[in-house]
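Posting this for the archive.
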Amino acid sequence: MNYRHSFHAGNFADLVKHALVLWLLKARQSMGPVTVLDTHAGAGRYDLTGDAARSGEAEAGVARLMSAVDRPPLIEALAKQVAALNPDGGVHVYPGSPILIARALRAEDRYAGFELREEVAGLLKESLSAFPNAVGTPGDGYDLAVAAARRERGLLVLIDPPFERPDDYLRAADTAAALVTADPGAMVAIWTPLKDLETFDGFLRRLATGTGAPTLVAEARLRPLSNPMKMNGCAMVVVNPPEDADAAAGEICGWVARTLGEARARAEVWRA
């Protein structure tokens, strides 16, 4: 597997994912203590002068976010978190989901991030060292999240694989089903790329069959889905979403599509 999140850090898909995760965490916190499980946590924070500078994806994503005016509230919430990690101005560091979530935890909340690659898991532990109720653990996040779900309640689970392994779509859907079986009230957010509709529709069918739970689908398409070799957009699929998640997802995906997309970009939010 040749995926390196550092290469893609701060791109448009990160903006969709992280803005919605921040909102979902706040919504989940309104219900009581929260345990956040993150199946593919990554390093926690990313130096945008490294791999991301070579890819140019951060320049087309978070750099444009930070220079934008009239940002809607949920986009502004992410921008404030990015600014806090760049006190000297500019955008040199981008926070991954572990840091964004850890910074928002209350005393009664906890975060557990899992990372398959041991060298990246070491970076994750280092990133979280300042947060007493957040931990990083090496291992297979699919399996570790399901095992943790059998012990915890108040769950918000982020499933964010690279989708470079041939079974990532299957394992993401089946892990969500296992999580909801362990805790029927678990809120599960799954990020996926949008390359072609056939793959995405198959994933949604398997997810619906496995969970049988209410599901929100939020898409940000930056271009038509005409080239399955490109990431034409991304989606956040939320199992057991809060009632007002539709408006939140629409605000986030709509802004990303309008601001960062091509001429035929669009956002769609619907219940599966």
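The mean pLDDT is 94. Residues 85 and 263 are 32 Å apart (CA to CA).
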